[in-house]
Amino acid sequence: MKLTGEKQTTSDEKIKQMEYKSILYRQAIMKLIFESKSGHTGGSLSCVDILNVLYNHAMDITPENFLQIDRDHYIHSKGHSVEALYVVLADMNFFKKELLSDFEKYSSNMIGHPTRFVNGIEQNTGALGHGLSISVGMALAAKMDQRNNRIFTIMGDGELAEGSIWEASASAAHYGLDNLIAIIDRNHLQITGHTDQVMKMEPLENKFAAFGFAVREVNGNSIAELAAILNIVPFEEGKPNLILANTIKGRGISYMENNALWHHKVPSDAEYQIAVDELDLAKLAWEQHND
Ligand SMILES: Cc1ncc(C[n+]2csc(CCOP(=O)(O)OP(=O)(O)O)c2C)c(N)n1
Ligand SMILES: [Mg+2]
Q1: Where do the domains of the chain lie?
Q2: Among 22, 24, 86, 90, which residue has the least CB neighbours within 10 Å?
Q3: Confidence of residue 2 (pLDDT cuts 50, 70, 90)
Q4: Which segments of the chain are extended strands (E)?
Q5: In which band, very low, low, confident or very high, does the pLDDT at 8 lie, cut at 50, 70 and 90?
């Protein structure tokens, strides 16, 4: 759905299917990290529901239209959480699922941060603070060319400490980029601890609104809330869109949730078994609930 003025809706059935996919995605993320013995665990689990709704519902990006300029575009600004992106891109058939087992292997392109050597990835990221600037440039180009496609990006809340985010924000508002949809994975944790302790940036609503964004807040681990908010983009004509997605770092695995230690950490055999059991239970609960 592009910027046509027409709003999208989401059926209950579609929401349920995406909720199920989130469980499968979490299983795949854990497998990837456990088997490769490397990975950004917490941040991948916090943003995977957002990626799920973006790729399965909101964005017009497919392997078939990938080379067309007038499709939507996605920039993974918090590049360290590439595991979540790989799992979703594999599900979207950008590459074969078997490639996931190459993650972090010597000479593989499936490295720990996004690169354009992997099908479906638009831009190399990982050095935090650049994704919004890139997205602003792409959104401005789309406006100049009178295309009605949109540019989406997900940033981390710790990433907002980068000054370049705020230069990009000023430009986004200055150029009236209502085709830009910036999403903050607001899990309140950074690499070493709470975002308020590392670099206090709150209140984010007020800061982004003052910069000229139309700001909306959702539960970023709720498929239904994410779909509903993405259905009504642009929020205000002529203003860039900012979605504050309140998430839980490590979401879905009890001992990882809200724990900065799991920013980049591989589970032991016993810990992995707990994760597998918890996700199996979530799957069972979904199946019983949706029978
Ligand atoms: C420019 C730059 N500085 C430092 C880092 C190291 N680093 C990787 S992840 C991270 C924390 C990011 O926190 P946040 O954006 O909140 O990510 P999330 O909680 O979603 O994992 C840092 C500092 C980096 N990748 N890039
Ligand atoms: Mg964070």
Answers
A1: 12-115+122-289
A2: 24
A3: low
A4: 73-76, 151-156, 180-186, 214-219, 241-246
A5: confident
Tell me the pLDDT tens digit for each residue of 11-66: 999 999 999 999 999 999 999 999 999 999 999 999 999 999 999 999 999 999 99
Per-residue pLDDT at 1 exceeds 70: no
- From the DSSP assignment, how many helices (H) and strands (E) are in the chain? 9, 5
Residue to probe by mutation, ligand 1, list 38, 80, 261, most atoms within 8 Å of CB: 80
CATH of the domain spanning 12-115+122-289: 3.40.50.970
Which of 38, 78, 113 has the most ligand 1 atoms within 8 A of CB, as the residue to mutate?
A: 78
Is residue 165 within 8 A of residue 132, CB to CB? The reply is: yes
For tokens 């665990």, the residue is 41
Residues in CB range of 119: below 8 A, 6 or more apart: 63, 66, 89, 94, 95
Per-residue pLDDT averaged across 170-187, rounded?
98
